[in-house]
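The instructor's notes for this session suggest beginning with a concrete chain rather than abstract definitions. Hand out the sequence below and ask the class to guess, before any prediction is shown, which regions might be ordered.
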Amino acid sequence: MIVCNLKIYILSDKKGIGKTTSLQKWVKINPQLKGFLTPLVNGKRMFQIIETNDLIPMETKNKNLKIGRYIFDKNSFDKVEKIILKSLFEENSKTIIVDEIGPLEINKNKGFHDLVLKLINGRNFNSDLFFVVRESCLKNFIVKYKPTHFEILNLKEFNNRYLNKSQFT
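After discussion, reveal the predicted structure:
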């Protein structure tokens, strides 16, 4: 049995200010990071699997997972979730990044809702968790998922701690 020393970090700031871009820079200098990012590629949101750099379309024209003006592909969410859960048990998996959790999960119990529950409540793995949560969703994320032993960082704090400050001047 693995003893869990799980730490939870929450990167939370305003929408569209560079959270994913900073995470991409962090991933480039830290090969032990696992999980996924959500960059905008040719105007479309994608899941970028950190370990392989594969891109999986997040959006679809089918109406199987909708919130606001966005229509998401449930199959893509399921595929990414399986990759993340597999990563948890790899020996070199130190930190799992989940970019990002928002209204789809918090308000609708869809998207990565089940994954968040498994990650936060999981005690049989030894990876730190790094969630990206939009500032407007942060309070509801904490109330809903009840993480323990967590630390909240805004983008400036993240950049100062994990990236070379000179990259952002």
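Then share the key points. The chain has one domain: 8-164. The helical segments are 19-29, 74-87, 103-108, 113-121, 138-145, 155-162.
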